[in-house]
Amino acid sequence: MLVLLNWKASSPDRVLPPPVIATTSDQEPISPLPQTISTLKANSELGERLFNDPLLSHDKTIACANCHSLTLGGSDRRRFSLGVGGVLGQINSPTIFNQTFNFAYFWDGRATTLDEQTTGPITNPAEMASSWPEVVERLRAQPEYRAQFAAIYPEGITESSIKNAIASYENTLITPNAPFDRYLRGDHAAIDGHAQKGYALFKAYGCASCHQGVNIGGNMFQRFGLMGDYFGDRGKITKADLGRYNVTGKDEDRHVFRVPSLRNVALTPPYFHDGSVDRLDEAVGVMARYQLGREISDEDKRLIVAFLETLNGQFKGKPLQ
Question: At 38, is the pLDDT very low, low, confident or very high (cuts 50, 70, 90)?
């Protein structure tokens, strides 16, 4: 397992170095996902019901599952999701799968626990547009919910117990047994020669400086545009493009985001916080140009994509598609 050593964003007028990573020659930068994760069954079952219930939204039309479909890689494959009343969001919805392995949540990392993360979508005017008093009142009016909560939580239906139940369910949304996980565990026939070459390129180009560990990302912040002015080239900078700056107000955090996980990445287009790229090979090229300062060949992109496609895991024993 890699150890990340004290990385943080430096001043905005400097090119950030890659994070310092402590490793040894016999270790890989990526670790396989665990096969199972501990959870309380009753809590997670209640959380699953809440996750799929539009009652949590102000107009009773939007559930968490609308933007985080388990049949669409844990996302909705839209550039920006639609909230209550058809309101268009301002940032791409990240996958809900394997969130339990992230060190922070949302693109700007403003939540540090899954419980805390729950508040964002429920109270965001562009998403579910509700409030905790409204949600609590509605659920308390449902006899089945009252009974289910009372059996688990002594306090019954409260903001805290709702958050805990949803987070308990989200903790179960892991996708182990990807072909690449099996390869890391010693089954070298689990991925073909093209994917193996792609993985070698992934490491050689430096992609693993940010995309590593058990979730192949999700464990650090990094600036989008280390080696080039991504936002200047794209134009029309929005508030969402400011990233961590919206949380901290620090200039050094402009355009800094939580590095996304690459697990199941082939299943979750479009890519980046702005949903600006539809094709995975194009996303690889953008990353090489703006994060690594490299222009890579179409062949190398093809091979890296072949590797990335081996990161598609299984959910409840069935391959994601």
Answer: confident
| CA 293/CA 17 separation, integer angstroms | 12
Active-site residue identified among 48, 127, 170, 309: 127
127 carries an active-site annotation? yes
Asked if the peptide bond before residue 270 counts as cis, ω within 30 degrees of 0, the response is yes
Tell me the C-alpha to C-alpha distance, in Å, between residue 227 and each of 14, 76, 255, 273: 10, 30, 13, 18
Give Cα 317 to chain centroid, integer Å: 21
Its pTM stands at 0.89
Locus of tokens 């150890």: 3
**Mean pLDDT, to the nearest integer, of 292-307?**
97
